[in-house]
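Re: [ENG-882] Designed sequences occasionally contain unexpected residues at chain ends

Forwarding the minimal case from QA. Structure tokens:
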């Protein structure tokens, strides 16, 4: 029997095996590639947009996409009810929707992560934090959006705040559940016994061992945030005209649904693809990182 040296860690094959398993998942790789392409399209919107997304021309209103009729090639995806370029507005709308989802998920996830760690580490705070979490869970995101819109007015600010607040309690529960498992491990007691302070135990021992499960949940939550934010914008609580945002564009196109269905269908399809890619990638990451779901 050969001894395992320090240069031959036993965990390396498992890590490489997880990566190989992820790369063999063609659906997950496709979702990741599509998600990266959508993010790049949003970031490069000022350079990729063929026209001004806010320039109106009523003489060119409701032009169909070029593959439906031989229209103007400068309007590849047609125009909306005010004659604005649909392709340009989709790129800028994707940018606004992604920014809304990223900001809301990052703010809500960061606060929820801290509260979940504190609830598991400081047992005297556990009851208070979980009661506050239960209170927040009792308010649907739509109701929170209505409340914040009534206070600060309709707009992206109200939507981001409501989505961030709605994200906090679920992240608190996921973080606390993972942290409680880690708190039961021997290395936490070993750290206490050698005199490590609470900050070191929280950051280097507890947070780093919980971050993978929280990251997977945040990936799944990102798709939900995009869907909820688009729904709030569809109801008129999000970005206000003429700002391009996918939910607002879908709402504006419902009046011309039978005359020019592409105005509402195209932003809706982008939302579907965005949410689907985030969910598929989150499921693949969960299967890779959760040992209970690994397939032999």
């Amino acid at each position: 029997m050969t001894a395992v040296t320090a240069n031959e860690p036993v965990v390396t094959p498992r890590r490489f095996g997880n990566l190989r398993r992820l790369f063999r998942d063609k659906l997950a790789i496709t979702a990741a590639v599509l998600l990266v392409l959508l993010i790049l399209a949003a970031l490069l919107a000022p350079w990729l947009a063929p026209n001004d997304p806010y320039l109106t021309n009523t003489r060119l209103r409701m032009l169909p996409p070029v593959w439906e009729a031989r229209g103007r090639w400068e309007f590849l995806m047609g125009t909306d009810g005010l004659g604005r370029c649909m392709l340009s507005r989709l790129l800028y709308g994707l940018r606004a929707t992604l920014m809304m989802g990223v900001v809301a998920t990052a703010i809500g996830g960061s606060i929820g992560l801290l509260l979940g760690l504190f609830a598991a580490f400081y047992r005297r705070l556990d009851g208070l934090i979980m009661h506050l979490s239960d209170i927040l869970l009792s308010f649907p995101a739509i109701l929170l959006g209505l409340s914040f819109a009534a206070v600060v007015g309709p707009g992206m600010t109200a939507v981001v705040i409501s989505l961030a607040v709605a994200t906090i309690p679920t992240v608190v529960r996921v973080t606390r559940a993972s942290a409680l498992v880690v708190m039961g491990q021997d290395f936490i007691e070993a750290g206490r016994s050698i005199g490590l302070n609470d900050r070191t135990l929280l950051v280097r021992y507890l947070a780093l061992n919980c971050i993978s499960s929280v990251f997977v949940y945040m990936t799944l939550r990102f798709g939900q945030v995009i869907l909820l934010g688009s729904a709030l914008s569809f109801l008129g609580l999000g970005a206000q005209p003429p700002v391009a945002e996918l939910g607002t564009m879908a709402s504006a196109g419902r009046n011309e649904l039978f005359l020019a269905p592409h105005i509402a269908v195209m932003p809706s399809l982008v939302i579907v693809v965005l949410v689907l890619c985030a969910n598929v990638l989150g499921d693949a990451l969960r299967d890779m990182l959760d040992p209970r779901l690994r397939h032999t």
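QA comment: On inspection the terminal residues look reasonable. Residues 102 and 222 are 7 Å apart (CA to CA). Proposing we downgrade this to a documentation issue.
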